[in-house]
Amino acid sequence: MSRPDLQNPVPLDPALDAPTAGAATRLRFAAVRSRLRLPSAYRRPMAVIGFTIIALWFIVAIFVPWIAPFDPLAQQFDRLQPPGPVNWFGTDSLGRDVLSRTLYGARISLPLALILVVASAIIGSVLGAIAGYFGRAVDEVIMRVADLVFAFPTIILAMIVTAALGPSLTNAVIALLFVSWPSYARVMRSMVLGARSREYVVAGRLLGFSPFRSLQRDILPNVAAPVLVLATLDFGNAILLLSGLSFLGLGATPPTPEWGAMVADGVQNFSDWWLAAFPGLAIFTVVVAFNLVGDALRDSLDPRTAGAVQGVKI
Amino acid sequence: MKLPTRPARVTALVAIGLASVLAVSACTDNSVSTSSTGAADKTLVIDKSFDLKTSDPARAFELTGSIVDKAIYETVLDFNGSDVTKVVPGIATFEENADNTVLTLTMDGTHTFSDGTPVTADDIVFSLQRVQGIAGNPSFLLDGVTVAKVDDKTITLTSATSNPALPFILPNPSLGIVNSKVLKANGGTTGADDAAEAFLNTTSAGSGPYQLESYDVTTKVAFALNPNYAGTKPAYSRVVLENVEGPTQKINVQAGSAQVALDLNADQVQGVDSSVKVLKNASPYLIYSWYNQDPAVGAGVTNNADFVKAVRQGIDYSKLLSIAGEGSTQPGGMVPSMFLGAITSDPANVFDIDKAKASLAASGYSGQPVTFSYPNDITVNGLQMQTLAEAIQSQLKDVGVTLTLAPSPISTFLDAFRAGKLQSGIMYWGPDYPDPADYLVFNPGESLGLRAGWAAGSDATVTSAADAASAASGDDARKTAYEAWQNAANATGPFIPVIQPGQYAVTTSEITTLDLNPVWTVDIADIK
């Protein structure tokens, strides 16, 4: 016995088949797209602008020897020339090209700010995690030291440390490290306090995990996001503080083309506006860009603030 | 979970604030409408950035204090206009003995205080002894000097050792003659217990062309004519010296709300309106570079004579002058250009890069970094030490010398400098009095010499030249001896005289006469 319907299968109606296949393809593409798709927080115009500016500055920092038109240290032009066709950003009080110096400034400020933020995030997070996890005396000691640092105005304390160590960029980073770790310690401690009594952490401990393994395996991955957001938002602050110390003569030593030091030079010659305006704009763009990215990062990691930003009632 | 939002807002606000400031500064228009007030009301307004502490001459040793005291008090000897190479009579004429140990003052008896009483020999003795007794900032001017009255017209000033600089010291406004009777009635003594400062800050007791009308150390000092002044009546019956910072001074003088501005720097002077007048002079402040001769500090580099020679020949002095602006000058030696004994140039301090490279090769220098220190919070007549340091670093790099700049605040810098611990650097020297004797400290074993590790006995030629200069008597002999000393020091010494910055006075067009003087900046009574 044969089954005619099997031997002679009824051809599929193309009219019916096409949409089905198309839908499947669309679904596959949608799946791929959704996997590649950035959270909506990152696709907002402000976030895109922020990412673009940061990307441009990092490109400048890496490729500046090929981008800058002149040697940033060569005193080869007339002094205090306003912006013109040769020197787009004018020249400074020693006849150096302000554009070249501003571009080279990215090589100083960006890596140092990055080092500062990463180092203070690591130190602050480790101390905060230890304080939060172990509690009692360890917590008291670490957090009281943090309170002590918090008790002083940041820039004043950094000035004292730099003045004691002597002016240099390395010492400026050390000084700022000294004053910036407590904010990370506080955030990390509060997160660890909440996480350490969760079931999966307790389960890990019952399985024989050491405290550090428990912190590393179970707690850290679950509390890292807020620290990451804080670090991103802090980047702009780090740039400002580093520039501030150089502005006060406690950071970069001359003739290093550092943005803060260049602004200080401009303040001495206030009528020659281009001296301070361009390095100032460089600081401004980097700081604003990192704040925009930091906002986007925070929104993507915290649905509540994301909703608030988008005007959704929560 | 509460995510941090505050840092973002704060940094964003700071950034936006910074941008706003920059935008405003970018849009600032330098041109200010000009108007001119006539001298018909006979009030003269002078803008000065105040460093005023007191108007008591025995205590004041600040620039503003000197302007005030010069207007109120007369001195026994004087200078004419801006010439400080020639001492002229003041309240008295003078004579010196052969070895310059006794200076005899003879009064002409024509001077009267503002209360109408005549200036007497007792007033002079009291005033000078008061400066010594109070032991304030200016008391060092009369160190080792004994003041004695001989008769009603004659006073002697006896020095323990030869003191040929004394006639050049006596015109200092800090040695102004006060009314001893009035002062004694108001707590004045010739000892440390003197309590007349408060009185002198409200009431002047001098014989100068003006007397105090009002006095405020932070805002302004007003002067009214002294009706009993013995000299030529000043052109202005009332003068207001007001405390204004440089950039505002520029606006004021261009707008005519002040007739004289005294604190504009070279770059600010460049941009002034064409309707105002600019007086340019070299300032008496001398910026010098030093190279430590102590082997422990010099590390075999800066204490090498050929290395110092290479630096002398490697500094492009004319370029530094263009940075410092018009009015600045390159001194030939350590004595500023306007003083007795100054040299205009010295072949040792001439820029020649080929000779510099040859000297450097002879020194055996192999590129090791040399620490170059300077105070980074100091400007001398508007010229930043940092700017000069960066320029010199760049110039010496072309010669082959690697300078590592080491900026520090002046307080930190001075500790290390005074201890003679700095390898090299740049610093300035302001005159205590307008005489070359003030510069003998730049010798082996002397206070400034030791800061550069120049120990006593390390340079016999320079030491004997300095001794000869110190012992010389009479203007001509002193001039020759001081020139010889500076030539010797330039040949082998560790100090390189680099630059005297410009000093500027900007006035409205109605001012026809104004002399800048290195001792008292400006004599208000001489402004016409």
UniProtKB/TrEMBL annotation, chain B:
One of its GO terms (biological process) is peptide transport. Residues 1-26 form the signal peptide. It comes from the Bacteria. Its main location: other. InterPro entries: Peptide/Ni-bd, SBP_5, SBP_5_dom. It is found in: Cell envelope. Keywords: Signal, Transport. One of its GO terms (molecular function) is peptide transmembrane transporter activity. Residues 86-440 form the Solute-binding protein family domain. GO terms for cellular component: ATP-binding cassette (ABC) transporter complex; cell envelope; periplasmic space. Belongs to the bacterial solute-binding protein 5 family. This is ABC transporter substrate-binding protein.
